[in-house]
Amino acid sequence: DTEVTQTPKHLVMGMTNKKSLKCEQHMGHRAMYWYKQKAKKPPELMFVYSYEKLSINESVPSRFSPECPNSSLLNLHLHALQPEDSALYLCASSQRYSGAYNEQFFGPGTRLTVL
Amino acid sequence: DAKTTQPPSMDCAEGRAANLPCNHSTISGNEYVYWYRQIHSQGPQYIIHGLKNNETNEMASLIITEDRKSSTLILPHATLRDTAVYYCIVRVESYGQNFVFGPGTRLSVLP
Q1: What digits encode the pLDDT tens for the residues B43-102?
Q2: Is B110 in a helix, a strand, or coil?
Q3: pLDDT given at position B91
Q4: Which chain B residues are within 8 Å of A45, Cβ to Cβ?
Q5: Quick check: A36 and A87 in contact, CB under 8 A?
Q6: Helices in chain A by DSSP H: which ranges?
Q7: How far, CA to CA in Å, does A52 sit from each of A48, A62, A95, B43, B95?
Q8: How far is the alpha carbon of B28 from chain A, nearest alpha carbon, in Å?
């Protein structure tokens, strides 16, 4: 299984809602990532988990809350989002965060619309 | 900030080789060159990476100049399915170094 899966594919939420994005991989990778991509822009890193511990938080607002319950799963909890948070949210994984063999495998993304 | 510059767009005829350039004039000795592509509405896809030697895999070839200040990704026989945004990224293989995506090159393969 060489796939990163993300659910849901599409999500529409109001500014007062709480929702979660889910990412899963079964490649035995120990590093997982969340990226945000606005239309016609490149992906921007949000968070990095290495061995289930949060290693990098790129100054992301607290309305985004990541969680890594185990080595295969990565969640992104959303609360009180703003319309400008509407974007494609991408999950990725790699064997490790540093060293060789850390090319990242990306999921198809969740397209989020905040009304 | 991204450490690479790429042309914003390129066209290539179907069946011909697509040569995508990348300038990374400030690259340091321990930084690898990575290439990814993103087909419309999909997640980025890893293509290839290298340090100083030329590399080839089933998808593409990577040619890195001797001074390592630039590189070229070669798709030997482009197909319509290769239409995508191609990103060139430089990264140190050490803890704390993240992938920083630049704007990339939008490659259009034309029939």
Answers
A1: 999 999 999 989 999 999 999 999 999 999 999 999 999 999 999 998 876 656 677 888
A2: strand
A3: 83
A4: 98-100
A5: yes
A6: none
A7: 9, 19, 13, 22, 15
A8: 16
